[in-house]
Amino acid sequence: MSYLVADLGGTRIKAGVFQEKKIIASSILNTDNKESFSKVIENLDGVFEELITSVNCQKSEINGLGLALPGIVDIDRNHVLAINDKYNESIHFNFDRWARDKWNAVLATDNDARAALAGIWQYGVGKGYDNIITMTLGTGVGGAALINGKFLYGKHYQAGCLGGHSTVNFDSFKCNCGNMGCVEALGSTWNLNNIVQSHPDIAQSSLNNYDNVDFAVLFDEYRMGDTVSKEVTENVLKAWSSGAVNLIHAYDPELLVLSGGVMKSADIIVPFMQNWINKHAWTPWGKVQIKISQAIDDIALLGLGYLVDTKIKNKRKN
C-alpha cells in the first residue's frame, strides 16, 4: 500500500510517500499566504507527482491520501470547519472531489496536532502508551489528546486540540482566538516580541538590541544572564506548565509529549515543566512523565499514514 501524505504548515508544506510504516521519500514546499488555496493544492499535486516518480511508483498504485491542516477539521466529511489566518480558502475547498478526480484515492484529513499525535503514538516516543497529551510549542501552542487508545474529537471536532487556548491569566494579553490570557498569548512566537517590548525594564535589557525577539534569542540571552530575559523566560515556562496542568486535569494522561522548534532548549524547558507538574498537578496515582518527540519533521507524516491506513481498513470492514 502506498499513500501520499502532506502536513500543511503556516510557511511550508512537508509532503511524503508512506509505505510499510515508513516515509520513503519526502519534500518541502514553501508556501505564500497570498496564493489561493487551489494554487497551493495544484503545487502540492506537482510535488506529489515528483515524489512518486522518485520512488518508481505509478499514480495508479496510490491507494490513499492524508492531509493535516492547522485548523478544526471534520474528519468524517473531510471539511475544514475553521482555520485562523492560514489557508482561509480551504474552508470552501472540496477535498473529497480533489482526492477522487485527481488521485482516485481514499482521503483522510485531520488537525495537524492530531496527525502528529498519531505518529507519536504509533511510531514515536508514545509507542506503548494509550493515554497521551501533546503540546507543540513555537509559533502557537498546539496539542491533541489520546484517551484509552482513541483520539479525542468531540461533537464539533475541536476537543483536545485547543489546549493552547486554555486561560492561565485572565488579566493579561488578548489571544488571537478572542480569549484573554491563553497559554498561547503568553507563550508563543507570534506574541513574544509584544511581551518583551511590554516589559518595564526593556530599555536596560540586551533584548532591546533586537528588532524581533524569537525563542532562540530569548533562551540565548537567558543563558547569558540577562535579567529581563530571565523574567520573560520564567513567565513563558509558567504559562506552558500551567497549561500542561490544565490538560492533565482534563484528560488524565500518563504521558505528556512536547515538540516544536523551541525544544532545542529542552535542557531549560523540560526540568522546569516536570517540576511544576510534579508540584501542582493533582494525580494521586503517580506523576505524569514528560518526553520529547523525536523525528519531528516526519512525525506528522507518519501519523497521516496511520490515519489513512485506519480509514481504508474501516471502509473494508463496512
TrEMBL record:
Pfam families: ROK
Coiled coil regions in record: none
Signal sequence interval, chain numbering: none
SUPFAM superfamilies: Actin-like ATPase domain (SSF53067)
Homology family: Belongs to the ROK (NagC/XylR) family.
Protein name, entry field: ROK family protein
Source organism of the structure: Marinilabilia rubra
